[in-house]
Amino acid sequence: MTEESTQKWLISFNPNLINKNSPADPKFFAQGFETYEVSCDEFLQLVTSGIAFSYAFTGDTRKSEYFSQAHCLCVDVDGGLSLNQAESNAYIRNSAAFIYTTPSHSPDVHRYRIVFLLEKPIESPAHLTFATRALAQMFGGDISVSDPARMFYGNSAALIARFDQTLSEVDVDDLIANGRALTVRKRRLAFTGTTTSRFMRGTQFTTETGGTITADQVSSKTVVRCPFHLDTNPSSFLALNDHNEVYHYCSVCCVTRWAPSTARSSAPAIDNFVETMREVSQAKNMKTFHRKAEGIERFMDGGEFTVASVEFSEERYLPDFNVSNGVLFVRSPKGSGKTEFVKREVARLKFRHQSFAEYEESSFEGDSRIYTDTSILLIGHRQALIGEMCERVGLHSYLDDNKLSHGEIIEKRKRYGICLDSLPKIRASVYDVVIIDEVQQVLAHFLSDTLRGKRHLIWDSFTRLVQNAKKIVCLDADLSWSAFHTLLSLRPPAAPCFVRINEWQETSGKNIDVYNSRDQLIEQLCEFISAGKRVFVTSNSKNLVLKVAELISHSKRPGGGAPKVFHITSENSKSADAQTFIKDVKKEILNYDAVLASPSLGTGVDISFPDDAQHVDVVVGLFVGGVTDHRDIDQQLLRVRNPKQVCVWIDPAKDDLETDYSAILADVQTRHLENLLEGHSVEAGHQAPDDLFTPMVARIVQDRHKSLNQLKLNFLNYKNDQGYLANFVDPDTVASKSGRDRLQVASDVLSAQKVKAIFEAPCLSLYDFLRVEDRISRIQLPIPEDLKNAFLRTRIERFYQCDVTQELIEKDQDQRLRTKISLYRRLTDKKRMQQNFEIGVDLGSDIKTALIADPLYRDMVLGMLLQHTPLYQNFTFKPDVEITKDDLNEFASKAAQLAVPLRTHVGIKVRADIQSKPTQFLNKLLDLIGLSLIRTRSSGKTGVKQYFYALDPTAIHSLDLYLQPLSTEEELDLATAHQEMADRYGIGWCYITEKYQHKFNDGQWRWMFPGRDSVGELSPRNTLSGHEKWAASVGLR
């Protein structure tokens, strides 16, 4: 400690609070904190006198708003790292002032506080929180002890370890960066975290073999124990990226940390694709580019990058050019005629004759064939748009296959349009020409949750189609490196590549009104409607679209009537009404006062009018953060090509997501690959999917992270580059409050409407239910809202096997109650749980079980943990057993041991205070099952009460009733009357069939019950058999 005798720190002390004893007046918990300037010796003397301390405040009141500055940081360690281990820790020895044990310290459970005195005080409450959290995670301390008004008790009987060191300003800055990463945390389900996070100067990492290594010693990937959490099994590594910068990645922290010398920040997204290609086009030899440029290194041989040609243009509409064999990349602004270019190219490839005169001449001696033998495939990413696109360019949409015979489908598939999700349908096909519209979004769709379970099949189908085609045409207004890398990686090394970039730009100086308040813009939207303006509202939040549509519907037009409103979201985008709207959108939009759309109408739809007529008065954009990037936002706003006014609100929040390609690639391979490609088996002779798939995913994630880190700024820069001028609207607090109130009312109305609609819907028969279920999950065709409500109601009634009430529907919303009941059922199923534990998986040490969430592991970790309480024995919950905090010591220790699998599979983090507050954590686990603790009584000496707890018997009774709604006799009667139905579909369907007296004809019965195969297994239903006839009977196409 520098100049120990003269150095002083500002610390507040309260002599009314001694050794955790109750004060004379409860007010002293907040008042009486006087700030003193003390040396380290004086600080320690006061603490060991039992006097409580805190940070410096303005006045003597300990309250967050009165926080002035912090001259110290404290970490409370409660179990975990022993006192001896802490004393020998290099970081503590070099940076801490002292350690003192707290009153609850014991030889069995070490409890102590590490105190760091700061070289420079922290004046920001947020920075104090970040730094404290980072230190707490580093030493397994209590991460909740981080607020700017935290009080720390002294201890007159403390054991002391002195180090007399100060924490440097540089190290505090690093802690703040690390703590921010922990606070802004969407880590477990998102890709790797912050770019600003650093490890400390001189940080020593322990290798697998027990040795130590520092950043400057790293020459290759090295597995190490993470020094930022208690890492008993190595869960991290050190590595070098492409620029020889050292980074540390931890699969438990889900954060990438960089060496202190690495200058990294969340800078605005910069796309260098165009400029790099310009350099290629200007090279002396047009076919080779000799300078090594970021983005094309992997396609270079000896410093040369081979490209057939790169051409630039500045045309209002994309010009025609010859499409040779190879890969053609076309980048051209939105509204510049990319679809018309595809239409002309399809016609050229599709028809043998390009004019009627040519056809007549060829048919002089007999009719000539109309079509060529060239097969053409168009790949899109949204069902709602592929039909309209196919109709515009002259291809057959796969959505219309149900209108054709098998033979007609085979012929139509020669010139075909299909969504990425459905590519396995044509997996064995080979096409001469493959056109990928909106290629950036098509590739990004590989990360969509809708592909879960079939992603590997779709990727395999996609790669086969691209590898076997003679020509690939990729189009996108924002075509960039992720598409360029991916498509060329799938082609042979010598395959020719062509790049066409059209740089036309709007020159009219259009304005865009930017609002800082979402609610203010919503209020302004209502005023637009009241003024008689036609508006188009677009958002990346389905819920926001539904709420705004509801509140607009209660606005008034100038004449007093209600506005005509139409909305499109993922819920109704496949409906007949939505498809009709999309197919003739330029006409249909004029029938409404307000049209609202989520990303289901985000791309591919051109709402423009002849002579650039301005039939839409205002386009309003409402965009939350972390969902779509700034390019997607622009796509959504520009669906209407020439509105009179554009108003937008974009979430201004910033993020610190990782943007280094190497670090993201490591994260994908470590945590996400198995989940992304679940169930994949590599066929003989084919390349392992991850060899090509993971680089694509990493590039897409990199692009996305660069955008999301500064979403609003990136959008504004993007619009500025397009020639737009931003007009920042002055804030209006009154309008903001009114908009917020409107939104809340709309939310309440929608929730009540949904419950009522489900309640009033009919209960479907087993036959109709299976048809609807197949249509939704297997055939993936739309169903109307009334049929969906009936489907939801039937699921509820089948599960609960009782009369459906609105109260039950409210409890079951989002399947919350059903999920708890199902988990309770599994945890009390003795045979099932015993079989789970016989698998032999060690959840505490097997790192593979900690990476990917799995329902089996969730049941196992909960069962294993709860068995360490007297309340759950032999897979049975015991409501008659009382417990105290002392009865949960084993439970708390086991929870700390299973901290990682609990976070991964259950979604709950084990707090550092688990040993001192085990009942609080136990209650959190029990809530997942629909159970809770109740306090039964208290006893003990005066001033030291001991509380007793038990399981709430009413909760167990309710769950048991839900699990057994029918008596054993009733179930037996139903199973006897409907034996085949009970065997295949369960007793719930016997209950519904009997209750509503559903009847089935012979054909329906044979379809539902196809019998058993030769080995006695239930034969599967033929999903497509009879589906068209059923769909027609209920008014579906």
List keywords for this structure.
about 15% strand, eight-stranded parallel sheet, alpha/beta, about 1050 residues, Alpha-Beta Plaits, seven-stranded parallel sheet, 6 domains, Rossmann fold
Structure description:
This protein has 37 helices and 37 strands. It is globular. Strands 19-26-20-25-24-21-23-22 form an 8-stranded parallel β-sheet, with helices on both faces. The protein is α/β, with parallel strands linked by helices. Helices cover 38% and strands 17% of the residues. It folds into 6 domains: 9-168, RepB DNA-primase, N-terminal domain (Alpha-Beta Plaits); 184-265 and 656-691, no CATH class; 273-502, Rossmann fold (3-Layer(aba) Sandwich), CATH 3.40.50.300; 511-654 and 710-748, P-loop containing nucleotide triphosphate hydrolases (Rossmann fold, 3-Layer(aba) Sandwich); 762-802 and 983-1033, no CATH class; 817-963, no CATH class. GO terms for molecular function: ATP binding; DNA replication origin binding. InterPro entries: P-loop_NTPase, Replication_origin-bd, Slr7037-like. Residues 322-492 form the Replication origin-binding protein domain. This is Replication origin-binding protein domain-containing protein.
